[in-house]
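Entry 14. Structure prediction run on the chain below.
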Amino acid sequence: MSALPEGYELVTDQSAIDALAAHAYLTTSYWSPGIPLETVQRAVAGSLCVAVRHEGQQVAMARAITDRATFAYLADVYVLDAHRGKGLSKAMVAWFHAHPDLQGLRRWMLMTRDAHGLYAQFGWTPLADPALAMERHNPAAYA
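Output returned:
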């Protein structure tokens, strides 16, 4: 697993994930602008999450929506601007890949506009056959 720089702590206790901190970031992200706090709270509660703290504050988070048997969807991966470039997202992705409940999954998926290079380092590739994938997308869900 990727090591964190001094002063950073990986948070794996699900009850210690700060949904309020996640909401503060996610509500301004390109993928979930305006997302309500209650939605983030439900999403965090229903997912396997990991976060990074620095000086007691949550500065990064990621979550996986999974059945822990066949499939996982990696979502809401973020690192606050002031903490980027320190390997925090690599540490979180590595944590998911090493998690005992996520071994032997048939498929992992994610959506990203700008982090393909990060995920490629972990063996992620574009869809082999995009014609297999479908979506039902409602970009105005939080408007």
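The mean pLDDT is 96.
Filed with the rest of this week's runs.
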